[in-house]
Structures are given as C-alpha cells and as structure tokens.
C-alpha cells in the first residue's frame, strides 16, 4: 500500500481515560466541590488534538464496558477520531481517572486512579494488523508499556507496523506511578525506542529510558545506531531540539503564555508537531507549532477540549515573530 | 464503665468514601458533564446522619493519604463525627468512588471504583480497644467483611466490644460487587450476625446471609438462638418489621415521597432508627423514624449532606399520621 | 441420627500432602541424595493414625489432579480412611511438599512447598452436609484456616456439624509459614475455638490463638465460656494437661524414647488420644495413649506409615508403668 | 577485550533447579517410593554439560536461600561452572522442582513445581555488566522470559552483551506450563531472537516463536533479516538442520540409542554442539556432536550427571560412521 493510499495519517495506541478537572481552582482539591469530566490520557489527547488540526487519525485502545467507556468512545468519535480500533473490555476493568488539582499555575497535581484500568488490559490478539497497515504512522505512548498484556500489545502492534512499512513514533510519556521499577522502565523504553523511527520526549524522559543522567548528543548517537530518523528532546522553557539522522539539529523556542495549569502541554505539543510534519512543513516550523500549541493549552482549563486550531497556533506564532 | 459514662453512643466501623453525584440528572451518565463531591459509604452516612440527629458518634476506618482522604476526614469531623479512630493509609491505597447516575426515579445506578480502596486495608492491629470500650454500641457494616485485612479488623473490633459489654449492631449492607462468592458472603455474614445484638437489613440481604430464599420467621429463629435481641428486616414499600427476642413483632409502614433517586435510603433509615432507639423511644416509633428518614433522603440529591433533622422527620411522620 | 447410627467416628478436614523424607539422615539436606515419599500433613496423619487404631475415619480435603494427588488418595484409602469426601482440584494446584531434614535428633527442619497448594483451595460449596452429619466428630486442622477459600470451607463445615450435633474438635496445628500475620491467626483461631467442643494444642499454639503469652487457667477460662467441654494443652517433655468444663484437671506424663526426629509427634498424639476417648477410655488413659503414641513415632523415620498400633502403645505404657 | 582475553567461553542465564528422578521406573509415579535428587533446568544442564566437555562456563541465575539452593550452587561449582554470577534470593522464593516419571521409553512425563520459583525473580539490577563482558557468548534460555522480573533481567543482559560484543545465543527451551498465552510467548521470543546471533530450537519451538505453523525457509529468512548468523532447527528423529547467514545448509543425522527416557536430550545436544563450535570444529561436526550427546543422555537415568564426555561422544560417532 503506498503512503498516498493510506486511510490514516496516524493511529495512536494507548490509554483513553477520564479527566475530572476541579471546577473551582486556585485552591486545594480538598476544597473543590465540583468536577468537570473530559476525555484524557496522553495518546487520546494527541489523537484528538491532531484530528482537530486536520489529520486523519485512528486509535487502538481498550475501554471499559460502562458509562465512562461509552463517554470516551463517543467523545473521541465526535472529535473526528476513528474508534473502530477500540476494544470494549468484558472483564470488569474500569476507566483510568485523573482528578486534577490547580492550586496555582506553579502548583498543579493529579490524583490518579490507575488500578485495574481497562487500557492496560489490551491484549496482543486484539491488535488488528489490517487496521495498522492503513496508517502512515503508529504512535506508541510509553505508558502502554507499563504492564502486561498492554505491553505485549504494543510489541505486537510494532511488529505489524514494521511488516507494512508504517512509521513508528514513540512518545515517551513517562508516568512514574504506573511503573514498579526504573530498570523495568528502561528495558521496555529501550526496546521500543530502538525500533522507533521518531522519538519524542523530555530530557527527563530520555534519562528514564537510559537509566542514567544523559545528554542529548549521546542519546541521539545511541538511537541513530538503531532505526530512528528523527528525535525530539524537550527542555521546558529552554525550548526543544530536533535531531535528524543526517545530522541536522533544530532548536525550537518556547512561547510564554498565561499559565493556568501545566497539564496537557506535552500532548498538545505532539499533536501540533506531528500535524505540521505530516502536512509537509519543515522541522523548524513543526517545532514552533508544537511550542505554540503547548502554550495555548496550558492557558486553558481542560486538555482534550482545549486542543487549539491551526488558526490559533499560527496567530500565536505570528504574535511572537 | 457504666453506659452513662460512655463517651460515644455509637461507633461505626467500615468505609468512608467519595460520592460523585451527577449534577445534571434524569439522563444517562454518558451525558453528564459535572459531578458534585460528597462523602459516601454506608457506615459513614449512618455516622453522619446519626451525629446530625444528636447522637455522640465515632468512626473506625481507613482513609487514603491524599486529597480525597483529607476531604473525608474534614467533612465527617465538621458533621460532628469523632474521627480519632480513623487511620491514614500509608501504602498508596485510594478512596472508593461511587459515580451516581440518575436516569429516572426508577432507574438509578452506581459506577463503583473499589479496587485497592483504603477502607478494605484497615488492619486488626489498627483497631483500638480503648476507643471501642468508650461506646455504647459498635456498628459493623457488612461490606467491611468483603476482604482481608478489613475482615479481620471487624472480628478484632467485635472481640473488643464483647469484652467491654459494647452492643454489636450489624447493618448487613450487602454490595454484590465487593464479593467473590455467595458462599464467602454467607460464611462471614453468619459469623458476625451470630455475635450481633442488633441486626438490620433488607429481606434480600438476610437471604444472602443464609444463602437461601428464607422467611422472617426462620431468620429470627436462627439469630435468636445466638446473641441477637432485636432484628429489623426491611421489605421496601411494604415497610419494615422489628422482632425482639422476647417475641414481640412490630410493623413499620413506609412513607411515600417524591423520589429523586433511591441511594442512601438504607443509611438514613439506620441513622434515624438507631437515634430513636438510643434516645429511649419505643421500637414502633423507631421504625417510623427510620421510614421517615429514608423517605426524606430519596427526595434529595445527595446522601450524606441530605441526612434529615429531627424536625424534618417528625414533620413527615405528623403529616402522614 | 443417633450417635450409634453414625457411619464415622471422626471426619478430619484439612491438608493431605507429600512428605519427602531424607533417606540418608544425620546430615544436612544438601548432602542427601535420595528421598522417600509418604503421605503427610497433620489431619491426614491423624486420620491415618486413628484409622489404624480402629476408628472409622473419613476425610475432607482437596488433592491435585496429578500423580501426587492420586498417590495421596490411594495411600489413605489403603490405610482405611474413607476418601469419598476428598475433592480433586481442576485448576492446576499442586500437592504441598515437606522435605524433611534430620541433622540430629535435636536438629530437624522442614523445607516446605506451600505455594498454590490444592488443600487451601477447598471451597465451601465442596463441603458436603450429608457427609458431615454421618460423623460423631469433625476434626478441624488450624492450618486449613490459613487462606481463602479453605478458610471459608472450615466455617461451612462447622456450620453443618453444629446443625447435626456433630462434635467439633479443633487441633490447633499452627505452622507459621502459612500465615501472613499473627493478628489474622489469632482472629480465626479464636472464631473456631469458640465453636469447638474439644480443643487440642501446645501451649505455644494457644498463645498464638490468644495473641499473647497466656497461661492454662485463663485459656481454659476463656474457652469454657464458649462451647468447649474438653481442652488439652501440651507442654512438651513436661507432659500434657486435660481440662474439663466440669472442672477436672488431668496431667499426662511424657514418655522417653530414642528420638530420631521430632516430626509427627503431635499428629500421633492426637490420633491415639482421640481413639482412646472415642473407645470409651477415661481421660487420664487417653492422655497416656497420646503420649505413648507420640513417643513411638518420633523414634521412626516416617510419620504416616509409622503410626503405631494399640499393641505398641499399650506395650510402651506397660513398660513405663 | 579481545576474544582471546575472555575468561569465559559461555555464560548461561536462566533457571537452575532440582530434578527428582523416580528411582523405580517403568511404572507410574504413583507407585514410585524413592526419588534421586539432581540439579536440573535447561541452562543449568547446558552449563554443566559444556563445562564437563571443557568449555569455561559461567552462570547467571537466582537460587533460593535454602538447602536446595545451596545444593544447586555446590553441584554446579563442583561440575566446573563458575557460580559467582548466581544470586541468592532473600524473599522466600523456592527452587523449581521436576519430578520425573518414566513409565516407558515412549511415555515420560514431568510433574513441575514452578510457582514462586527463585529463578524467575532474578532482577535486571542483579545482572552484572562486568561479568557478561568477560564472556565470548551469552546463552539465554527461553523460559527465563516467562515472567517479570526475570524477563527484564534477560533484556538487561542482552544489552550488556551487545555493548561488549558478546555473542547472544538463544536456546528457545519452550515449556508451555510457564506461559500464560501463546501471544505473550511469541512477542518475547521474537524480541530476543531478533537480537540473537545464534538461535537453537526444535521446529515446534520456532512455531511458538512465530505463532504459526511455519517452515524452516521462512523462519531463517525472517531471522537473517535481523542479527542471526547461525540457526539450528531440530526435527527429532529426522535430525537437525543448521543454516548460516551466508546461505549454507547442513543436515545432522540423529543417532539411535537405547532410550530410557527423553528428558535432557535438548540440553545435552546444545552443550555438545556449542562445545564443538567454540572449539573450532566445523558446523557439520558440531551437529553430529549434538546428536551423539543427546543419544547418550536419553539412555541414562539423570540429565545433569549423565552429560557425556568427549570420548563417549566420539565413540558413538565412530561406531555409527
């Protein structure tokens, strides 16, 4: 199948959960009385964000057989994400929850419910080869590696992607609470990163993958000896760096914004960066798209619903040019 | 210690959790966008409700070391419940959650989060003998028997109660989702019921205890051969029956009310019934207090916050006299 | 059913396992090359021992669906134990193993395999009421309480015993490696001991039950407030004491013997004591039977196969008279 | 470090367990009364066998802190295997057991004890980089992939091997009872096989790896696209095939022998094949060494103790020339 014939620009694999955002913020969650419900989870946010920007997006994941599961499926479908690759759990697993607490722009925290969550019960035999081969790229969220059988489902999906020349994008998306040991994280992050064509993460996340305090030069040296062709390393307010296998290095600047909370910055970055890349924009532009998108989301209350439009992104870039 | 010297009328043992009630109701939860947070869980509701009615109430339970745990502790303390017997979990367990869905007065359902919940990790060594001996009565919630080590904590608490002539009240509070097998339920419900002085439940709950379709005569016959002196069996709209060891039978009628949802009826019943009993009212009056209290709660949105006052209860009884 | 019409003098409930006894002894197990296979496990040994002495004995337990399971069933049947109450596990559980090491008569140890053992997976619904009601007495081994669902099966069996006036004998049989916490042990040992008519154990085992360093007077005071009528407390070389509800106290002396190993002493004691009691001998004689039987078994290599005959027991008693 | 400076020809990683072989054979195990104790487990057998043939061999694995663990360590050290890479478990895990039953040469079976076994608790941080870099080759046993954390320890070891140009040999060693799902097996077998330089297994085992009924041509085609340079596929009595990346194919014939039991054939095959290869013999000769070694072991009672000498192997080859 040629790239032009592909039905999806991107299929994301991993968790789609529920965010419960404090309606009353700038206070501790103990004093919050009301929560608003959104879809959350890094790969779900990226899928929703990039669909909103115009990419043709699919999703592979497992949702519970309950009201939260049905909400997730409908929300994503309404956002333009193809949900035919989502599997409904039949064993009583639940939707992951993230109660967000915004004490101040600097003090945000999340209270997670991740025990027995459906997304980590996706099984390798539930990953569909025919679905994956219709994509230009498969995006793997690192958290999907945290536990069996979701972990094996990831490797199965990568095997199908490799077989059908589908690019593998690895968004490191490291969440400490889902992992038992740093060694385990490092082992599986390495196994996936070595097979990925594009790897995106923060400097801290790459350090987890390498199980040491590393530096960009050695990280990209390591991954370019395997299958990577493009690596993006994010350094917070210092901006992000893109490295290509052919040796080019790009630096994307970060945009200032009126920060409400820090959640969702990475997801909106990835959505806009990948959209730009897949739309044929150059890497430098893609970096700025990512930064602008992140800056917009942190100024808003939700993550998935706040994913910006191209117009918003370009306006921010122009305003800061 | 004489009964008059006791610091608490009632100490309840079991779960104190979080209710997340759909703000927008008369619709499926999939369409709900906002949830209000309350304290929930049967023994917590009974403790709050009976404290509100004027009893001196304590609580034994385990709460998570997070924002939800702190909210629960503060909410109960503010409601007048002594929380010095509550233990903070240090092993990462979470607060149980109940998302309530009110499609219509007849169609209510609850989406539970009960995996890894702190309340079921109360350990026998965390139950304080000195605390229990200060109570006139210890109320055990059946759900606390669902799992170790909470199950053993219940037996430990009963042992202390027996040693210090504290009455044991068993509120069957059967929730199918917390149990693995009907045999297991029956075994532990029987072991506690045989040691209880007062047993309260619905006919269906007594059937779970006996692991058969039983009838009131044989149920009370069985329990009066052990330590029971008063047994209350609830039959929904047909009202409730109280049986005493000396052979008296009382029938309490149910009150009609404008039902918003069915949650919380049993807890408010128990709170008002026990308050009446402990205030020296006769059994017939206590039954009507229970019925009236239940009728009031089902007409309101929350459970713990909606627990009625004596004035409300007596007004309803008078209006229906 | 009258006692005379009963088909079984005794039905034992609990584990039936495999002993692998070092053929070469008086050395550490590291240097052992050969092991002999026997049936083991306290209640299995008691069943075999008392059947050998002439009691009509049945057994309730769960055995694996493998060669070890079939060996256990055949060995016990050949020893005269009715095995119709034994259930074959269908979930891949295994037989418990005990590798015995005899370094010297003073230094014996056991290497246990107790993970995933079939005996602890006996379910309450696998306990047969019709079987139990045919017994004069039901013997519960404390180890069967160590884990669900075997724990619930014990309580179910006791419920049936009570219903049909079958005496409950509780052999404390405490094995630390099967328990997670001393509080848990104490809770369940107490619950069973309070329902037992005869309780047999070492002073140390009664201390576990009471979760404190106790003394015989307070122990028997506690149990006689419940359903006990006869309590036997063993004090090693100082002999054993029997206490009756009516206030009699008997002291049984211990017999000296050429000790090869210490395993199996308690089981052979119980087998001979119960046989004597059920044969109408007086309590003093029963104590001496127990002591003699224990003295014989510790001088031999195995446990189950070494259970003595009446002639051997009486010969030892006469020789020491 | 040059290959000549390396301290070890081979370091094997995986389980070292206890075999309990029926002393009385040609009968069902139910009728066996005595068992002989040996060290067992595929990688332990290969280590012992190749050490006996003259290779310098090390071992990475986890053994219990008990009599069985100490026996294993001493037995392997006595057989000439360096055991400095073996870790003693401190969490109460046990030695795996294999009770062998020899009903007839055609009917052999094994009763396994694999629940909570120490070998599967080897942790990635317990794998020593300095140890691995001293080896010419690292042999991975497929069973070590069956469970975390041993699974991650394997990937960690491979990472060290790759870093220090140590050849990775993958002995598929598939045992169905250690795996939960064929998909899981296939995922991890593929991940290791794609990194291995030498892969050895039966046709059935390669089918497990590929999760389909495959054929040798496609199997070797797949693996030569990754890092393999030599692949050995065994077809039982039809002999074995060796494939090299450069396109050569060798066929090794099987030797007839007076079969006592079938256990241990694969391990002795691998030991002799690897010894021949590492001693500079050609591939065809190595195949015959493997076949001869297997033929000798199946005619003897044990596995680890029966590993043949070079003289025995060469005598058998000559006798069949």
What does this structure look like?
Four copies of one chain form a homotetramer. With 321 residues, chain A is of the alpha/beta class. The first copy, chain A, has a single domain, classed as 3-Layer(aba) Sandwich (UDP-N-acetylmuramoyl-L-alanine:D-glutamate ligase), CATH 3.40.1190.20. Chain A is built from ten helices and 14 strands. In chain A, the strands form two sheets. In chain A, strands 1, 4, 5, 6, 9, 10, 11, 12, 13 and 14 form a ten-stranded mixed β-sheet that branches. In chain A, strands 3-2-7-8 form a four-stranded mixed β-sheet. In chain A, helix 9 crosses helix 10. The model of chain A has no long low-confidence stretch (mean pLDDT 95). Chains in contact: A-B, A-D, B-C, C-D. Chains A and B meet through strand 3, helix 2 and strand 7 of A and strand 3, helix 2 and strand 7 of B. Strand 3 of chain C pairs antiparallel with strand 3 of chain D, so a sheet runs across the interface.
CATH architecture of chain A: 3-Layer(aba) Sandwich
Termini of chain A, distance in Å? 40 Å
Radius of gyration of chain A: 18 Å
Task: Indicate the CATH topology of chain A.
Answer: UDP-N-acetylmuramoyl-L-alanine:D-glutamate ligase
Largest sheet of chain A: 10 strands, mixed
Task: Give the assembly state of these chains.
Answer: homotetramer
Number of domains of chain A: 1
CATH superfamily of chain A: Ribokinase
Q: How many H/I helices of chain A?
A: 10
Helix content range of chain A: 25-40%
Q: What average pLDDT do the residues of chain A reach?
A: 95
How large a portion of the residues of chain A is in β-strands, by DSSP E? 15-25%
Count the strands of chain A? 14
Uncertain spans of chain A: none
Reading off the top of the CATH hierarchy, the class of chain A is best stated as Alpha Beta
Shape of chain A: globular
- Provide the succession of SSEs of chain A: EEEHEHEEEEHEHEHEHHEEEHHH
SS-derived structural category of chain A? alpha/beta
Work out the largest interface and the residue count of each chain: A-B, 25 and 25 residues
Family (chains A, B, C, D): Belongs to the carbohydrate kinase PfkB family.
Domain Carbohydrate kinase PfkB (chains A, B, C, D): 10-309
Catalytic activity (chains A, B, C, D): 5-dehydro-2-deoxy-D-gluconate + ATP = 6-phospho-5-dehydro-2-deoxy-D-gluconate + ADP + H(+)
Pathway (chains A, B, C, D): Polyol metabolism; myo-inositol degradation into acetyl-CoA; acetyl-CoA from myo-inositol: step 5/7
């Amino acid at each position: 199948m040629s790239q032009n014939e592909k039905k999806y620009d991107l299929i994301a694999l991993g968790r789609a959960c529920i965010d419960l955002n404090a309606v009353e913020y700038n206070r501790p969650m103990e004093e919050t009385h009301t929560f608003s419900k959104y879809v959350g989870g890094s790969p779900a946010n990226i899928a929703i964000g990039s669909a909103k920007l115009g990419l043709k997006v699919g999703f592979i994941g497992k949702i519970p057989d309950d009201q939260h599961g049905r909400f997730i499926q409908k929300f994503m479908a309404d956002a333009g994400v193809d949900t035919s690759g989502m599997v409904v759990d039949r064993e009583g697993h639940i939707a992951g929850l993230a109660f967000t607490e915004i004490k101040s722009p600097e003090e945000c925290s999340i209270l997670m419910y991740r025990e027995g969550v459906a997304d980590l019960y996706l099984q390798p035999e539930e990953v569909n080869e025919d679905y994956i081969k219709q994509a230009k790229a498969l995006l793997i969220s690192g958290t999907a590696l945290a536990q069996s059988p979701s972990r094996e489902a990831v490797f199965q999906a990568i095997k199908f992607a490799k077989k059908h020349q589908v690019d593998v994008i690895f968004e490191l998306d490291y969440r400490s609470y889902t992992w038992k040991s740093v060694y385990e994280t490092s082992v599986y992050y390495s196994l996936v990163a070595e097979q990925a064509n594009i790897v995106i993460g923060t400097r801290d996340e790459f350090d987890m993958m390498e199980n040491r305090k590393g530096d960009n030069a050695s990280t990209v040296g390591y991954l370019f000896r395997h299958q990577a062709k493009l690596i993006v390393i994010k350094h917070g307010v210092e901006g992000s760096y893109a490295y290509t296998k052919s040796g080019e290095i790009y630096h994307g600047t970060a945009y200032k914004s009126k920060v409400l909370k820090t959640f969702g910055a990475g997801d909106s970055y990835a959505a806009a960066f990948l959209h730009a890349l897949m739309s044929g924009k150059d890497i430098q532009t893609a970096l700025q798209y990512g930064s602008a998108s992140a800056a917009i989301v942190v100024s808003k209350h939700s993550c998935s619903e706040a994913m910006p439009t191209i117009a918003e992104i370009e306006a921010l870039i122009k305003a800061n040019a």
